[in-house]
Specification:
Layout: E1 6-9, E2 11-13, H1 21-24, H2 44-47, E3 72-74, H3 87-95, E4 99-102, H4 107-115, E5 119-122, H5 125-135, E6 143-146, E7 151-154, E8 157-160, H6 165-173, H7 177-182, H8 185-198
Parallel strand pairs: 2-3, 3-4, 4-5
Antiparallel strand pairs: 1-6, 6-7, 7-8
């Protein structure tokens, strides 16, 4: 996955609480196992007025300009609740979102996003309210996110956020947990060779 260091972009304000993973990516689209191609199904039942996804709902935020090109998603409490399906961050990433800002997230969804290169930022509810007001200005209400400094900036204001140091390091380097482990491939191989000599009955 691509490293996340800084991001400045349009923020789409999704003014809904308790958005679950079935709303993010409905169950009928879970038949694929590759990560690409899910973006067109993101928020399918809200984005489209028909089952086949041929007629857009003009009232939904992602069907309005300039939010079609948003890279930051603003949400409310408990975003990503429901099932543990990893397809939800796949769909968000494939659409183009690299950062989601909300007061709270479901725990499994939070970890799934981090492992798929999406930074999740928890801010206070009143701070999120301020960002919603800024995002309403569209392209002129861009938001900047700096992971190294752990700061969100918009309209002359700055908001600090916390993140687990290990998760921060993985995002900065563009590594999921498997990728992080593979950094130590030489050490793992050396350990396995030594173990095979010292305890051959385990081989």
């Amino acid at each position: 996955m691509d490293p996340f260091i800084t991001l400045t972009g349009i923020a789409a304000p999704l003014d809904r609480s308790n958005v679950d993973t079935d709303a993010i990516i409905p169950k009928q689209f879970l038949r694929k196992i590759e990560r690409a191609g899910f973006g067109k199904h993101l928020f399918h039942e809200w984005r489209y007025a028909d089952y086949d996804g041929l007629k857009e709902n003009p009232d939904f935020i992602l069907n309005k300009e300039p939010y079609r090109k948003a890279t930051i998603l603003l949400a409310r409490d408990n975003f990503g609740c429901g099932s543990s399906r990893e397809h939800a961050p796949w769909a968000l990433y494939d659409f183009g979102f690299r950062c989601i800002i909300a007061p709270s997230f479901a725990d499994i969804f939070y970890n799934n996003c981090i492992n798929n290169g999406i930074l999740l930022v928890r801010l206070k509810a009143d701070e999120v309210d301020e960002l919603f007001a800024i995002a309403a200005f569209g392209a002129s209400g861009r938001i900047a996110v700096d992971l190294e400094k752990q700061v969100v900036a918009a309209a002359g204001k700055k908001y600090s956020f916390s993140i687990d140091p290990f998760q921060k390091e993985c995002l900065l380097k563009g590594l999921n947990q498997i990728g992080w482990t593979l950094q130590f491939g030489d050490n793992i191989e050396a350990f396995e060779k030594k173990l095979a000599v010292e305890k051959p009955w385990l081989a």
